[in-house]
Amino acid sequence: MDHGRLGEAAVGTLNANWTGAATLPSRTQYPHQWSWDSAFIAIGLARVDQDRARRELRGLLRAQWDTGRLPHIVYGDAGGEAYFPGPGFWDSRGVPDAPAVRTSGIVQPPVHARAALTICARAQDRDAARRFLAEVYPKLAAQHRYLGERRDLDGGGLAAIVHPWESGTDNSPAWDPFLPDVDGTGPEFVRRDMDHVAADERPGDADYAAYIALAESYRDLGYDDLKLLDKHPFTVEDPLFNAILLDGELCLAEIARRVGGDPEPHYLAARAVHRGLMGRLWDDERGTFVARDVRTGARGTAATIAGFAPLLDPWLPAAVRDRLLDLLLSPAFMGGCPHPVPTYDLREPGFERHRYWRGPTWVNTNWLLWVGVLRAGRPDIARTICGSTLGLLERAGFREYFDPVDGSGRGAHDFSWSAALALDMLA
Ligand code: 9WN
């Protein structure tokens, strides 16, 4: 397939997944609106349909809680049984600060300020774009305030995730050391996620039991973040989430500047995240950023795709940047397989070619790395990542993820962010 046809096919996939109010990640596997999916989708739509890109973000922001929390799922009309856990599980309607629309109670990486700024950057109608920025700025600022204040559990400058789903990289090996404390022996539930995808491409049952137990724990605390350190068994700082938070603050500073607001608080917030990343998550021995348990201060050891996300940080010391790029190009990641970038160190015994976030190549993490290496002054690596990603999509279609060894498509078919980010990478 040539590049022109890939672009047309991408638009076709996004149209097929559009409900009239939002774009589903996949009609079968994920039949609701997901938070960071919508941000990636808006970034792609900004290239072809500004109006829909704006509607995508607006639809999500309408589901924001009064505290600024932007939920990771906004439930639509798909039958309650189509996806587990459904809206009843989270019981958001029982929480005073939640909106009327039914949502989950956890968050996802805040790519949304980047999406809003991208929509504006691609707009032909500059006035409409500025009006849109002025409309969404207070909501995005509230989203970041929530993360910077309520989720910085011990004042160390980083936002904690309280569930692996919040990372967006659900069963990454990065979470393994922090899950044994979770008691997954709760009530029975039926997994719906394997109705459409092979079992060896999804998280294992023990992981799922922990996911449900953690979601119940947070829900039963009334989503009260002040109780997390005492009562919740998973409070972890993730380099990917925090690098995106930092990038988002810099985008907010730019948005504030364009709408006549004050950029200064956003620069300060971004600097705080930078200090937290360097002081807490940089592992000098391994030459990468790793996850850290807020409660114990213990750090993980897994070298995953998340470790490279701080390439988005413009203040990264040159020596740290160079060590990261060395690891990225090494046989552990880009140098060790024909279809990079794998989400986990290829040389680890726990690397799995097909299992979700434990090895496969994903389009959204490739896109983030593409932006990161460009920022780090390496257009040559950016070209390799971009060419290889588009090649995978041309050969295997808009699959959810890909085997980094043979390039075969895995997971859901017609997956929205694979199509959307192709549009951005094609441009
Ligand atoms: C749980 C929708 C989402 C993505 C995540 C991805 C997967 C859900 C699931 O699908 O997570 O949120 O059911 O596995 O891990 O990144 O946002 O595409």
UniProtKB/TrEMBL annotation:
Alphabetical UniProt keywords: Glycosidase, Hydrolase
Pfam family of the protein (one): MGH1-like_GH
Every Mannosylglycerate hydrolase MGH1-like glycoside hydrolase domain range: 30-418
Signal sequence bounds: none
SUPFAM superfamilies per UniProt: Six-hairpin glycosidases
The keyword Repeat belongs to this UniProt entry's keyword annotation: no
InterPro entries attached to this UniProt entry: 6-hairpin_glycosidase_sf, 6hp_glycosidase-like_sf, Glycoside_hydrolase_63, MGH1-like_GH
Coiled-coil region(s): none
Database matches in Gene3D superfamilies: 1.50.10.10
Keyword Glycosyltransferase: no
Family the UniProt entry places it in: Belongs to the glycosyl hydrolase 63 family.
Protein's recorded name: Mannosylglycerate hydrolase MGH1-like glycoside hydrolase domain-containing protein
Annotated organism of origin: Actinomadura algeriensis
